[in-house]
Design a protein that fits this description.
- The chain has about 250 residues and is an alpha/beta fold.
- Helices cover about 35% and strands about 20% of the residues.
- It contains seven helices and ten strands.
- It has helices at about 15-25, 45-50, 70-75, 110-125, 145-155, 160-175, 220-235; strands spanning about 10, 35-40, 55-60, 90-95, 125-130, 180-185, 190, 200, 220, 245-249.
- The strands form three sheets. The protein has a six-stranded parallel beta sheet with strand order 3-2-1-4-5-6, with helices on both faces. A two-stranded parallel sheet has the order 7-9.
- β1, α1 (about 15-25) and β2 (about 35-40) form a beta-alpha-beta unit.
- The longest helix is centred in the middle third of the chain and has 16 residues, at about 110-125.
- The chain is globular and about 55 Å long.
- The relative contact order is 0.15.
Amino acid sequence: MPTARPKHLLVIGATGAAGLALTRFALSSSTPYNLTLYVRSPDKLPADVRAHEGVPVRIVQGTLTEEDEEALGEALAGEGEGAGEGWGKVDAVISLIGPPAFGPAGTPIAKGYALLFAQMKRLEIRRVIVLSTPSFHVPGDVPSLFWRLTILSIRLLQPAAYAEVTSIGAVTSSQPREELDWTVVRVPFLTEGGEERQVRAGLLGAEGDKGESGKEGWKLGRGALGRWCIERGMEREEWVGGAPVLSDR
């Protein structure tokens, strides 16, 4: 049963291309959200986001590490410098951070999510959407030869990135549903734009959730990803407790 539409969102990764597309979509909504942007480098945010007219935007600097647990807690609780009057704690969290192709070993993002989820549970914030890829396998997936070869090549050539995205999926999907309403959005190759494109959501090799026949696509516009997270992930609460593969259709 859908809960009330969230009014205050925490966005993690707003300086990345996907996170920025989502942030701009949320700011342009007919009923805009209060946004808290939790970012490592605030100076990387473009001016139109930092000084958006008519929509409250709060920027909190920090990382998903133990060193910044206090900043993360304040961002979630709606406390500290820049907190909007009457905002209160956030209603939901969207994180679109992902590993670089040849990033560090040790799955730092997945470990950071463990810290995030602990803080969310402490504050009784339930809804969260995180980013992964089809490398994270879930029951019901029937990957095509294309996806089997693609995933194998990533595992062999980019082992740190493969370990990170699979660990992100594992640590998120292991959260008890009575404590967190999580969704892992698995994305293929991301492209620019796509705000107006329709999105297909489903398991690998399965029919889409809107009855689309055929296999999932191999690409997804970042704008379409942002719109799906806001409209279908947050407002309609689709795929709670699930891990859809999103693609253009």
